[in-house]
Specification:
single chain; 398 residues; alpha/beta; Rossmann fold; 2 domains; 6-stranded mixed beta sheet; 4-stranded parallel beta sheet; 17 helices; globular; binds pyridoxal-5'-phosphate; Tryptophan synthase beta chain; aromatic amino acid biosynthesis; lyase
Length: 398
């Protein structure tokens, strides 16, 4: 008996409204079909779910705490709760999806894993589960990101992964993803673990499903702490959209819960140096799905820019393109400077150094007025150790 029912606004073909689908070369058709079949088969399998739940608890350390940030709440005159994905093993939400996907890869008999990474958190998470499960691991990473996220590169190597620096384009996440897809085309027996809610169907649905544990826990934790399961706001940063998808998932069908996505404006939405895809993009196809894309009038991808490697991407997951254009989610564009300021406020008032990506979500507190009675949950997607160099270079620390 089928138990799995996605709570996402998705149809049979993997479309969220007019976004999504699977736009892939012929050579990948079988791969994507096999993946889809395996996902729908195992997502309903009790042994699979049990293994996932056990690893989430005993290996990742879940549930991650929901922490009431008293001093931050006082500053912003509202009630702020931080979902501490930064406390997960490997330091970010990415491990939730890496474990689910690797378990699926094992069930499918795969022995070689491919991944792309921007900030290095998905690369580290994938290298970690490959070490845990005895799988070969190749991670593609833009050369710019290799330089700005050096600690994560060293961690991946120590974990036994091969890290391939990509020198095409502006040497960031888009270029790493292109190379990973190219590898998959040449090695269709490999399993591609995508690190976000991007790519052809079923990836956005599958990644959102593995990340949905975030909002499942938030509901239970809020119930225990404040006596109700739903907050007034859920706030998350959006690169491709996986931490936001996980934080929004169990609230999407509660219209009274307002969803806020923070995208990276870089030096400003109109500066020509931005990664604010929802503000600056238009409908197009990137990495296998129809979504919003930053592109020229003749369809060439515009190189994105953000201080944050994990948000430096010219596309957006199709779920978020749908949530934004349908008005279900509000999208705010946060500049580098605003994110750096928000990171310092959290660090100096709560003793938590956030990832630069998560700092974009925190900056929403400075851009929007909340009511003193509001309950505002911010998904703290990762920790900032990997970003110390960038914080220092930008004089955040004195
Ligand atoms: C800590 C952290 N947060 C957020 C992101 C953005 O990815 P996504 O939008 O898929 O959550 C990344 C990506 O590397 C990350 O490392």
């Amino acid at each position: 008996m089928k138990k799995y029912r996605s709570l996402l606004p998705i149809d049979e073909e993997g479309y969220y409204g007019r976004f999504g689908g699977a736009y892939i070369p012929e050579i990948l058709h079988d791969n994507v079909k096999n993946l889809r079949d395996a996902f729908y088969r195992y997502v309903d399998d009790d042994d699979f779910q049990k293994e996932f739940d056990t690893l989430m608890r005993d290996y990742v350390g879940r549930p991650s705490p929901l922490y009431r940030a008293d001093r931050l709440s006082e500053i912003h005159k509202t009630n702020i709760y931080l979902k501490r994905e930064d406390l997960n093993h490997t330091g970010a939400h990415k491990i939730n999806n890496a474990i689910g996907s690797a378990l699926l890869a094992k069930r499918m008999g795969k022995t070689r894993i491919i991944a792309e990474t921007g900030a290095g958190q998905h690369g580290v998470a994938t290298a970690t589960v490959c070490a845990l499960m005895g799988l070969d691991c190749v991670v593609y990473m833009g050369a710019t990101d290799v330089a700005r996220q050096q600690p994560n590169v060293e961690r991946m190597k120590m974990l036994g992964a091969k890290v391939v620096a990509v020198h095409s384009g502006n040497k960031t996440l888009k270029d790493a993803t292109n190379e990973a897809i190219r590898d998959w085309c040449c090695n269709p027996d490999s399993f591609y673990i995508i690190g976000s809610t991007v790519g052809p169907h079923p990836y956005p649905e599958m990644v959102a499903h593995f990340q949905s544990i975030i909002s499942k826990e938030i509901r239970a934790q809020l119930k225990e702490q404040v006596g109700r399961e739903t907050p007034d706001y859920v706030v998350a940063c959006v690169g491709g959209g996986s931490n936001a998808a996980g934080a929004f998932y169990h609230f999407i069908n509660n219209p009274e819960v307002r969803l806020i996505a923070a995208e990276a404006a870089g030096k400003g939405v109109d500066s020509g140096e931005t990664a604010a895809t929802i503000h600056a993009g238009s409908e197009g196809i990137i990495h296998g799905s129809r979504t919003l894309v930053m592109q020229t009038s003749d369809g060439q991808i515009v190189e994105p820019y953000s201080i944050s490697a994990g948000l430096d991407y010219p596309g957006i997951g199709p779920l978020h393109a749908y949530l934004a254009t349908s008005g279900r989610a509000e999208v705010l564009a946060v500049t580098d400077t605003e994110a750096l300021d928000a990171a310092m406020t959290l660090t100096r008032n709560e003793g938590i150094i956030p990832a630069l990506e998560s700092a974009h979500a925190l900056a929403v507190l400075d851009k929007k007025r909340f009511h003193p009675d509001d309950i505002v949950v911010i998904n703290l997607s990762g920790r900032g150790d990997k970003d110390l160099h960038t914080y220092l270079m930008n004089n955040s620390i004195n």
